[in-house]
Each structure stands twice: as C-alpha cells, then as structure tokens.
Design brief:
110 residues, 0% strand
Length: 110
C-alpha cells in the first residue's frame, strides 16, 4: 500500500507541474501592447495578465516572423526579448552560459 501511494504521489507531482508566468512588471508587456496597437500582432488582451512564458513566446515569434520592418528601437527590444525567451521558444540552452565555464552567448537572430 505504501509503495502504491508513493508511486501515485511521484507521478502526480510530474502531472501537476505549475505553469510559469511572466511577472506583471516585465518589460515585455508594454512592448506587446505597442505591437498590438500598431497592428503587428492580433488577439492580444492586455487585461489578461500575467501571461505564461509560452503565450509571450508565441507573440514574440509572431512579431519576428512578420515581414514588416520595425524601427531600430523596436527591433533592438525584440532581439533582447527573443534572447531572454529563447529557452521557451527553442527549448535549448545555446544562449546561456555558466559561471563555471568560459562559454559565451551565441544568439543569432535569423
């Protein structure tokens, strides 16, 4: 009986993992609001905060895939946010470095 309970609790802990939310005061929200206001992204609701990392990443990818030229400031903000949310977007750690190694950041926006 104890073994069954342990297995159940162990499996349940993986199934009920919490979803990560982006902090309400994060710089991504004003940027997404601006992109919605100028018509680059659709279906953005600034009243539904906080948003998950997945939702924010999908908006950033949508903005990046647009053929519209962003001004210099918006492009730099987008590149910074793509870099920050790279793990959620690509699922890799290629843009991160460790304090214990000499690796550097390798972000290339294509």
């Amino acid at each position: 009986m104890k073994k069954t309970l342990f297995i159940f609790l162990f499996v349940y802990s993986f199934i009920s993992a919490q979803v990560g939310y982006v902090q309400i005061d994060h710089k991504v929200y004003p940027f997404l609001e601006r992109m919605y206001t100028i018509g680059i992204i659709k279906n953005y609701n600034s009243f539904e905060l906080p948003k998950t990392y997945k939702e924010v990443s999908e908006y950033l990818v949508e903005i990046n895939n647009q053929k519209i030229e962003l001004n210099t400031v918006d492009r730099k903000i987008l590149e910074s946010l793509l870099f920050e949310f790279d793990y959620t977007i690509n699922g890799s750690l290629k843009n991160y470095t460790s304090l214990l190694t000499g690796n550097s950041f390798n972000y290339i926006n294509k």
